[in-house]
Amino acid sequence: xxxxxxxxxAVACLGFAADARLSAHHSFxxxxxxxxxxxxxxxxxxxxxxxxxxxxxxxxxxxxxxTVRWTCEAGSPGALSRRGFKRxxxxxxxxxxxxxxxxxxxxxxxxxxxxxxxxxxxxxxxxAGDGGPGDPTQNR
Amino acid sequence: xxxxxxxxxxxxxxxxAQELTAPEVTGPPRPxxxxxxxxxxxxxxxxxxxxxxxxxNIGKDLPGWKLPLTPAGEAALQHNLTAxxxxxxxxxxxxxxxxxxxxxxFEVLQGARKIVFLYWxxxxxxxxxxxxxxxxxxxxxxxxxxERGRWEGDTLVIDSIGFKDDxxxxxxxxNPHSDALHVVERWTRPDADHIHVDTLIEDPKFxxxxxxxxxxxxxxxxDDQIQEYSCSENNVDKxxxxxxxxxxxxxxxxxxxxxxxxxxxxxRPSTPGx
Lengths: 140, 274
What we know:
The complex is a heterodimer.
Chain A: H1 2-12, H2 20-23, E1 32-48, E2 54-61, E3 67-74, H3 77-82, E4 95-103, E5 109-116, E6 122-124
Parallel strand pairs in A: 3-5
Antiparallel strand pairs in A: 1-2, 1-4, 2-3, 4-5, 5-6
Chain B: E1 21-22, E2 44-49, H1 71-83, E3 106-110, E4 114-119, E5 123-128, E6 146-152, E7 155-161, E8 182-191, E9 194-202, E10 211-219
Parallel strand pairs in B: 1-2
Antiparallel strand pairs in B: 2-3, 2-10, 3-4, 4-5, 6-7, 7-8, 8-9, 9-10
């Protein structure tokens, strides 16, 4: 029950930067496809805690058993740390679950809206809302 | 426990995430601070108000947010929508008047002879305050224009000409401006916690008439300030971005329209380490 409560609180914190979408380095809809909501589960192989976005790279297993490398785009370091998502939360070798939208150009790149960490915490990827579910600017 | 759903605005914890905007100030207005020479001091870290709607849209104050584009302006808009990548996403300066419509906070440092506006992405504009200083005959084009500042009573007037005409969007929605752009801003600080601008935008090539963009920002907390931001440090997006701003929604802002829902959150048992 305690873990579930912690997860509930973490989810309630998600992405409530009221104007995060306007602060986006770019329009997310210009790069990511809002019709392609995906889930990527993989192990972290690299973390770039940089501007204009942070990135972490996952080795994920595809259906045929091969390993596919995914690029997960998250917010700037400042945007992430303000949401309680610290650089140290992403450890090489950890398995994380990333939910977001796939790049329009078909590359293995996802706009990380939600990241589920190994300890069960669910954190916002601090990707600008741009109308996605859970974006408080949409009042959905 | 049932699958968790995200319901906006139900927790006080969302306050932690609203750092780019500030809540409206309560209580009686605090007096406007002034510099030694008696002018209002515009210095401060200024955050957007949640009442500024639609954000990122230079037509905010026009009926139906409809910009008075000339035929050349319409063509320029179509060009921006279909053939240009957002210049700001390529780490090119947003410039004026785009930064007045931006969702990002900014910082002002005011001196007696100069005033500087510091923006995220480590951009700035430095404006001389001198009523005797006139515009150049042929200024080199720039993204913020050639600025001339002067006081009119308690209003700082900034008059800017000499704008670039390529790799420019006038707002987040890819609306255009030409090199004929002329911007006159009137900045005031009506009380300690607010800064206000009336921005007059005139561009006879692309707009049939001048129009105004007005906005109020709210003072940040004492320890808020602009930070370093190196836009080109790791710009992975530049190889993946499509043209244009993405869809413009019915609320006048850019973004997804009816995106697919994300998969329901996973409830993982809490495990130490991996």
